[in-house]
Design brief:
The structure holds two protein chains of two kinds. By secondary structure, chain A is an alpha+beta fold. In chain A, 19% of the residues lie in helices and 30% in strands. In chain A, the strands form seven sheets. In chain A, strands 1, 2, 5, 6, 7, 11, 12, 14 and 15 form a nine-stranded mixed beta sheet that branches. In chain A, strands 18, 20, 21, 24 and 25 form a five-stranded antiparallel beta sheet that branches. Chain A is elongated, with a radius of gyration of 38 Å. By secondary structure, chain B is mainly alpha-helical. The chains are: A alpha+beta, B mainly alpha. Chain B: InterPro entries: Oligo_trans_STT3, STT3-PglB_core, STT3_N.
Chain lengths: 480, 747
């Protein structure tokens, strides 16, 4: 009975802590702990999803990202801090180490607060450029909130962002009510480098631009960036699938912008405010933090199996060695984490493909993996491919490399040796019709030799009268 | 009294039975001496496999013993030549391993549990004892004097030319191959002398064993037909020759084709064509011989000889055509380099880079053979004196052996047996002449001379008329015999000295002397290999120059990219390119080949000459052979043509991965600005090289072995140079300051 209870307790604990696939220890860095009241709804949402929040200021003595070489936290949120640097506990190198240790970061900026140096250099390492002088302001004279920023035009109103490519899963706008708007108040825009690890989640409208309100109040002569090159919310996913999300506007996550009433400017003399309504910020913040903290968009490889696909062969799983020109079958089982549970992974679109490479130095086969319903379960989808091994011995890799924006990386390599034909695996000579003349030749030679021996043995010279006559003739020759 | 004793002793040596007993005892002693003189390294160091190739043989033997013969036969080795793998069972000469395996199992069957390593270590000395006996048998076929055989056995037993490849621990193919070589020759002579099919078949059997053991079997394959050809040209064709040769060729070729590595080579390659040609020629001769005996006509006979010559010429022509048309493989590079010593250096650097393929320096002959080298021509001359079939063999062997030994250091080994045999004939003839205590009876000589005529006696000096002078004088005999004995003793001294000093170093362990004279062992190799074994994943791929491939496979048990079985020049050139290029070029190569660790040998701290910087030019040359556009040997030399490693070194040199790995962190050992490479006597630049794509994993005690770990791709997608700069604390330059058009994201 007790064990049953403890089992249920364990199940419950597992269910709570399993919300994020990485862990639930969340560190919030604030200038002042009282500031957290501004973000109470956002933080309450996080807590309700099972995260254990700890609050620290950058100057705190007890702050340590690592303890005995292990991460002390699984995730960090940076809210804007007024300090120029973040102190010795949060140097860019430590933050890079945190990412390398699979920790996730949610970094928020604000145009009113200069970004700390530590974060600027961290973002520079990720190829994310912030405006010079550590501050900037994104404005748009066409898509602003008419009710709160009628003059400054610095509260942008945007539709929830769809997928950046048609073949990428829609994480942030799916299911959003029509005409819902995101408010992006007083934010900083960033410029992303060309690397494939970066993904812009929310891009500024074509008419937006970034300027420095302190120095460029009168004229904007040198533009930092404009239009869609300005990323307002951007995501970085490292090779080890650690995630960093950069939110240009911390205010966006504040209580007052959650479900705030906004209205778009009237675009013309005659019309009234085109659209007005509640912002989508709360749901967007949930999805954004959920993605950052590994609640959605996480792929898991459950198992990989490959075996001989020959009739009558002993179906040993995952053998270390195969023979050339044999048929094999490869199966991989994938799950995707969706908030609370693992679900079978399906390809986001028909144009996408999960591919298997069979490679030594370069791929010998590159095959699409097909869904295998027989091996799929409720929480996992199996994909398989069957093919014939190449006529080349060597050390090969079954390789699945599936890397898509916003999905965690799948990079699986299973090494097998492919050996040559053993001496007794070739067809026997009598099976090969081309060898029959040679086999016949051997037979004829043997038979001929035996016949010759027999002939030789039974044809000893008989002392016949002819022989005697010959001797006599020799005799006569001699005497003559 | 003493005279009586001498009499007894002399009479004891008279009886036939006693003599054979003495001979057996002496042979046993010689075999014992041969074995024991090879044990220096075991006594001084330990029972350990030496050098490089033996490590592979040892590993293969262990595989054979563990998995049985058929598994060994079909062995696909996925721990060498990553990622190509090696069909090891089909690309090695299995004779050595199978011999050890048989000995191992035989001892086990006799309930003598011996470690397979000890069998491998002691196999070569054991077979050297057998070689001595084989040399005794071979020499006995040459001369009626039985002392010649014993001398030959002694010479072969302790000649450094043979010891160099057969000390304890030198577990190489040559360890058994030389015994097989000599014994096959003995059987050939026996078959030829007797015209016996049995001996011919035995000869073919041992030839097959030889083919299974060593690539040098081609020496027999070419020497026996050559001997037969010379005999035919001398007009000595006989049915004995016919029987011996055809038996050997037919059975021997069949036997050799059973070895997977040889396969159809005997009917496909040029090296084997002489044997086939002589075989056909002999058939023709036999036929003509038969016809000639049947039809005794002088004109017809000349016609037949002409016919034979024409057929021979036609056959040769056909061979040339078949070769040029591609039916028969042309001579391989290794054989070309036997004719033109400069060939390999220009065309196949991989062959030229092997130290044992270098031409022999002349002191090496004296070093390896000592006094035998001047007794050798005497022996050959004595063979000319008699010139029976078997002596022709010695003459032919001597000629060819000398040529090949002059071309390639390694082939000194094949010359040694004939030198020993010839020298033994010379010494025994000399000793027989001078130790013969009998002086001719003056009366008989007088009678003999008087029968010839009185003239000579009258006109000579007075002293010459006395018979007991000159050659017959005890004084003269004593002088010659004494000198010979001194020579023999010096020979023994020399052999022991050479064996002890030059050939008994395992080269895995280096020995040096401390100032107080005590021995100091430098054990960096094993230290590093042990580190690899204990600290890396079992399938961590190690990249190193090919010299160390077998040792890493044997001692560290880790997969390697290239090893001493240099069958794939391109793969070796790939490693050479990775070593000689910039990091940015090397890194993708290493990634593609899944390299986890890179191992280099560095002798700068200790003054160890066999290090990778000294071998580096070969890596460059071999890489240049495949990628002439990307690697250039010239770029590693200063404008004045010097190969330097100090501050004056060229940029290419300083940026090459090998240079960086060798000198990385080396400066920290010295006060600033005083880093010195003791091997090359060069003062190194004040700032050492930086490594971005590799990190130092291990450096052995004396810095001989340095191991680097290949970094993974940067987790944040940066290139390694900027990632390493960030780790060192350098801030990234702001990209906005960059000039030129801005790069836009387009997705």
């Amino acid at each position: 009975m007790r064990s049953l209870i403890s089992f249920f307790v364990f199940l419950f604990a597992a269910a709570v802590s399993a919300l994020s696939t990485t862990g639930n220890r969340l560190l919030v860095i604030l200038d002042d702990v009282v500031e957290k009241a501004n973000y109470s709804k956002f933080l309450a949402d996080l807590e309700s999803r099972g995260f254990q929040l700890s609050f620290e200021t950058p100057k705190s003595e007890s702050l340590a990202l690592f303890h005995l070489g292990e991460r002390s936290y699984d995730h960090i949120i940076f809210f804007p801090t007024k300090t120029k640097g973040l102190g010795p506990k949060l140097t860019p190198n430590l933050l890079v180490d945190f990412l390398n240790a699979k920790g996730n970061l949610l970094v928020t900026l604000s145009s009113g607060v200069p970004t700390p140096n530590s974060l600027v250099s961290l973002l520079a390492e990720l190829d994310i450029q912030l405006p010079a002088e550590r501050t900037g302001l994104v404005v748009d004279h066409f898509n602003y909130d008419a009710s709160s920023a009628a003059d400054l035009h610095d509260v942008l109103l945007l539709p929830p962002p769809g997928p950046i490519r048609p073949d990428v899963k829609d994480f942030f706008a799916a299911g959003a009510p029509k005409d819902s708007l995101l408010a992006f108040p007083r934010g900083v825009g960033a410029v992303l480098g060309p690397g494939e690890l970066l993904t812009p989640i929310l891009r500024a409208p074509r008419t937006a631009y970034s300027y420095n309100p302190k120095e460029q109040a009168e004229t904007v002569d040198e533009l930092f960036a404009a239009g869609e090159q300005l990323a307002l919310v951007s995501a970085f996913q490292a090779r080890n699938s650690a995630r960093l999300t950069l939110v240009g506007s911390a205010e966006m996550l504040q209580d007052k912008w959650f479900d705030a009433e906004v209205s778009q400017p009237s675009s013309g003399a005659g019309k009234k405010a085109a659209a007005a309504g509640k912002t989508f910020n709360r749901e967007f913040a949930k999805r954004l933090s959920g993605w950052t903290f590994n609640e959605i968009g996480v792929l898991r490889v459950n198992w990989i199996e490959h075996h001989l696909d020959e009739p009558g062969a002993a179906n040993q799983s995952n053998p270390a060695i195969y023979r050339i020109k044999k048929d094999v079958k490869y199966t991989i089982s994938l799950s995707e984490h969706a908030w609370t549970a693992w679900t079978p992974f399906t390809l986001p679109s028909a144009s996408d493909a999960l591919q298997l490479e069979f490679s030594m130095l370069s791929p010998f086969h590159r095959l699409p993996l097909q869904p295998d319903p027989a091996l799929s379960t409720d929480d996992a989808a199996a994909y398989s491919a069957a093919f014939r091994l190449p006529d080349q011995h060597g050390i090969f890799n079954f390789r699945v490399s599936y890397k898509r924006p916003l999905l965690s990386n799948v990079e699986e390599k299973n090494t097998v040796s492919v050996r040559h034909m053993a001496h007794d695996e070739w067809p026997r000579s009598y099976v090969i019709s081309g060898a029959w003349p040679w086999i016949a030749g051997i037979g004829v030679t043997v038979a001929g030799w035996l016949a010759f021996c027999a002939l030789w043995m039974f044809s000893a010279p008989v002392p016949a009268p002819g022989g005697a006559a010959g001797a006599a003739r020799a005799e006569t020759k001699k005497t003559q | 009294m003493s005279a009586d004793l001498l009499q007894v002793l002399a009479s004891a040596g008279k009886g036939k039975g006693t003599r054979s007993l003495l001979r057996v005892i002496i042979l046993a002693l010689i075999a014992g001496a041969a074995v024991s003189s090879r044990l220096f390294s075991v006594i001084r160091f330990e029972s350990i496999i030496h050098e490089f190739d033996p490590w592979f043989n040892f590993r293969a033997t262990k595989y054979l013993v563990a998995n049985g013969f058929y598994k060994f036969w079909d062995w696909f080795d996925d721990r060498t030549w990553h990622p190509l793998g090696r069909v090891t069972g089909g690309t090695l000469y299995p004779g050595l391993m199978v011999t050890s395996g048989v000995i191992y199992h035989a001892l086990r069957a006799l309930t003598i549990p011996v470690d397979i390593r000890n069998i491998c270590v002691l196999l070569a000395p054991g077979f050297s004892g057998l070689t001595a006996i084989a040399a005794y048998l071979l020499t006995n076929e040459m001369t009626p004097s039985s002392s010649a055989g014993l001398l030959a056995a002694l010479f072969v037993g302790i000649a450094p030319g043979y010891i160099s490849r057969s000390v304890a621990g030198s577990y190489d193919n040559e360890a058994i191959a030389i015994f097989l070589l000599v014994f096959t020759f003995y059987l050939w002579i026996k078959a030829l002398k007797q015209g016996s099919m049995l001996w011919g078949a035995l000869c073919a059997l041992f030839y097959g064993y030889m083919v299974a053991s060593w690539g040098g079997y081609a020496f027999i394959t070419c020497l026996l037909p050559l001997h037969a050809f010379v005999l035919i040209c001398m007009g000595r064709y006989s049915t004995r020759l016919y029987v011996a040769y055809t038996t050997w060729y037919a059975l021997g070729t069949l036997a050799s084709m059973q070895i997977p590595f040889v396969g159809f080579l005997p009917v496909k390659t040029s090296e084997h064509m002489p044997a086939l040609g002589i075989f056909g020629f002999l058939q023709l001769l036999a036929f003509l011989d038969y016809v000639r005996s049947a039809i005794p006509s002088r004109q017809f006979q000349t016609f037949l000889w002409l016919f034979a010559g024409a057929t021979f010429g036609l056959g040769l022509l056909g061979l040339v055509i078949a070769t040029s048309a591609g039916f028969i493989a042309p001579w391989s590079g290794r054989f070309y380099s036997l004719w033109d010593t400069g060939y390999a250096k220009i065309h196949i650097p991989i062959i030229a880079s092997v130290s044992e393929h270098q031409p022999t320096a002349w002191p090496a002959f004296f070093f390896d053979l000592n006094m035998l080298i001047w007794l050798f021509p005497v022996g050959v001359y004595l063979c000319f004196q008699e010139l029976a079939d078997e002596h022709v063999f010695i003459v032919v062997y001597a000629l060819f052996g000398s040529y090949f030994a002059g071309v390639m250091v390694r082939l000194m080994l094949t010359l040694t047996p004939v030198v020993c045999v010839a020298a033994a004939i010379a010494v025994s003839t000399l000793l027989d002449a001078y130790l013969n205590a009998k002086s001719p009876n003056p009366e008989e000589v007088q009678a003999l001379e008087s029968s010839e005529g009185k003239r000579a006696v009258k006109s000579g000096l007075r002293s010459t008329s006395k018979p007991v002078v000159g050659v017959y004088g005890l004084w003269g005999k004593g002088m010659v015999v004494g000198a010979m004995v001194v020579y023999l003793l010096v020979f023994v001294l020399h052999c022991t000295w050479v064996t002890s000093n030059a050939y008994s170093s395992p080269s895995v362990v280096l020995a040096s002397r401390l100032p107080d004279g005590s021995q100091h062992i430098i054990d960096d190799y094993r230290e590093a290999y042990q580190w690899l074994r204990q600290n890396t994943r079992e399938d961590a791929k190690i990249m190193s120059w090919w010299d160390y491939g077998y040792q890493i496979g044997g001692m560290a048990d880790r997969p390697t990219l290239v090893d001493n079985n240099t069958w794939n020049n391109t793969h070796i050139a790939t490693v050479g390119k990775a070593m000689s290029s910039r990091e940015e070029v090397s890194y993708p190569i290493m990634r593609q080949h899944e390299v986890d660790y890179v191992l280099v040998v560095f002798g700068g701290l200790l003054g160890y000459s066999g290090d990778d910087i000294n071998k580096f030019l070969w890596m460059v040359r071999i890489a240049e052979g495949i990628w002439p556009d990307e690697v250039s040997e010239r770029a590693f030399f200063t404008p004045r043509g010097e190969y330097r490693v100090d501050a004056e070194a060229t940029e290419t040199m300083k940026n090459s991965l090998m240079y960086k790995m060798s000198y990385y962190n080396y400066n920290n050992l010295f006060p600033p600005g005083q880093a010195v490479d003791r091997m090359r006597g060069a003062r190194l630049p004040e700032v050492g090289p930086t490594l971005n794509t590799l990190e130092e994993a291990f450096t052995s005690e004396n810095w001989i072995i340095r191991i680097y770990k290949v970094k993974d791709l940067d987790n944040l997608g940066r290139d390694h140079a900027s990632a390493a700069a960030f780790d060192r604390g350098h801030k990234k330059k702001k990209a906005t300051k960059k000039r030129g058009p801005r790069l836009l994201r387009v997705e």
